[in-house]
Amino acid sequence: MTSTILPTEDLPAFPLSRRGDVLPPEAERLRAEQPIARVRTMTGDEAWLVSSYRLAKQVLEDERFSLKDTANPGVPRQYALTIPPEVVDNMGNINSAGLRDAVMRTLSPRADRELGSRLEATAHRLLDALIAQGPPADLRDGFTEPYSAALHCRLLGIPTDDWRRLMSGIDVAFVTSPAPFEGSAPNWYKDLGYMVERLNADPAPTEGLLGRFVALRRSPDVSDQVSDDLLATVALSLFGAGAVSTSAFLQHAIIALARQPELADRLRAEPAVIGRAVDELLRYNLSIGDALPRIALADVTVGEVEVKAGELVLVLIEGANYDPAVFPDPERIDFDRASNPHLAFGGGRHFCPASALGRTHAEIALAALVERLPQLRLALPVEQLAWRPGFIKRLLERLPVLW
C-alpha cells in the first residue's frame, strides 16, 4: 500500500474528537488506510500522525525521535507551549543533575511500605463520605481527584490538604492552545513558588521526594549542580503529570464498569483478576487524548514514509492500543486477554517510570469501588457527559453516578 500525501490545504486537523467514551472513527480509518499520515495541528504546523501499533512502537523506541526537542524554539508543535520549556525537558535535567535515583525511588511502590494501606484507607474514607451524602454524587470531585491527589501529595511529602490548590493549577497548566495565553506563565510560577516554599520550609521536609531532595542538596557531590527552581520544577512536573493521569484513567475505568456491570460483578467475585483487569482497562481507555509528540533528529523511514529531520511525529496511542493486529476484537473489554502489550505507559526510554505505582493506585481504587458501590451506574446518559475541551487529557468536568 502506498501512502497518499494530501495537498497542504487538505490536511486533516488534529487532535481528534475530545469525547472519551467513543473511539474516534478517524483513528480506525487512518490505521487501516494510512498508518502514518500527514495532519495539521492546532498551531497550524504539519506533523506525521502514527496510528498503528507497529509504527507507534518503532517511533517510541527509536532514540532518533526526541521528546526533549519538542520544546526547542522554532520546531513544529502539537500545540503552543503553555508551560516553560524546562518542564518538557525536566527528565533530561533529572539525569544531568544526578537526581534520577531520588525520583525513581519515590515512584517505586516498594519505597513506602505503608502506601498500599494508606491508599486503601483514603479510598474508603472518600467512599464513606459519598455514601453518607447519598446518590447521585460526582465521583470526579468526590473520589478520582482527591484520591489521586492524595497519593501524589504523599509521594512529594507535602500536606494532603493542599491538593485542591495544586489541582486547580493543573486546570490551567495543561490547557492545549494554538497560541500562548496570558495566564499560563503566572499560573506556573505561582505553583513553582509553592514548591520552593515547601522545599525550604522550617522544619525541612523529611518525607517523600522533597525530603530526598533536601538530603541530596546537602551532599557535597551534587549541591553545586542543583537549584531550588530545578528541584521545584521536577516536583511540580511529577505532581501534575501523575495526578491528572491517574485521575483521568480512573474516570474512564469507572465509565466502563458502570456501562458494563458484568465486569464489576466479576471483579467482586474474582478479586485475583484485578491486575489483568487494570491492564485491560489501561489498553481500552481513551484518556490520553492528544498523541505523544516526538521531533525527528535524523531522516528515518517509518512505514512507507521517510520522515525528515526536524519534522514532528505524533504517536496516537488509542490507534495503537485498538490495533486488531495485536489486540483481537479490540473494542471488547477482555480481562482474560492472553497478551496485552499496550502502550498506555508509552515506550522506549520515556516509558512511564511510575507504571507500577499507577497500577497499584488503580487496583486499590477499583477494588474499593466495586465493593462499596455494587450497583454503580451513570446518573445520566453517557452522551450527556461533559468532556473538557482543549485539555491535554480527555477529562470529564463531572462524573455523576448512582448506586
Q: What does this protein look like?
A:
The structure is a single chain. The chain has helices spanning 25-33, 53-61, 85-88, 90-96, 100-106, 115-133, 139-156, 163-173, 184-199, 208-217, 228-259, 261-269, 274-284, 317-321, 355-372, and strands spanning 36-40, 46-50, 65-66, 137-138, 292-296, 300-302, 305-307, 312-315, 377-378, 400-402. By secondary structure, the protein is α+β, with helices and mostly antiparallel strands. The strands form 3 sheets. It has a 5-stranded mixed β-sheet. A hairpin with a 5-residue loop joins β1 (36-40) and β2 (46-50). The radius of gyration is 21 Å and the shape is globular. 43% of the residues are buried.
Mean pLDDT: 93
Order of helix and strand elements from N to C terminus: HEEHEHHHHEHHHHHHHEEEEHHEE
Helical percentage: 40-55%
State the low-pLDDT regions, or none: none
Q: Please outline the major beta sheet.
A: 5 strands, mixed
Structural class: alpha+beta
Strand content: 5-15%
Q: How are the strands of the biggest sheet laid out side by side? A: 1-2-8-5-3
